[in-house]
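Sequence only, no structure available. Ideas?
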Amino acid sequence: MGSWLRAGVVGRPHGLDGSFHVVDPRAELLGEGASVRVQGHDSLVARRAGSDQRPVVRLEGCGDRDAAEALRGAELLVARADAPALGPDEWWAEDLEGCAVHDRGRGVGTVTRLLALPSCEVLEVNRPGRRAELLVPLVRDAVRAVDLERREIEIDLAFLGETA
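Reply:
I predicted one. Tokens follow.
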């Protein structure tokens, strides 16, 4: 597991003061005063506005629209040590990506990413030899166990209406 978590991507500027929209945000990592790394430089979130789904952020040292435009497309990273604690049965997407997926010991595939759908979050699982990825909802009936140390996730294909 890496020491950095992706908090979002710098989007288009908002206004003239150096603020910008955040694309693919993780609002819980972007509170006012949060320490972030962008383009290899550390900074603090000086302003946080907008909604959790569409936050507007200004970083210290980013004082005008041109400075915000220069950051456009850059990843916003937060040190894992500065991230809020997760509850039971919660994981960071980065920790699940790349995990091997099994059903009762039979290999199913590999997690490529975590997707947030309107009803719940799902694991997108790449299945070798199959055209479409398998979407596994992060619910107890579909996911039996997650072992981050072994980088393995145990699922129930029968619950999903699938076969290995």
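The mean pLDDT is 92.
Hope that gets you unstuck.
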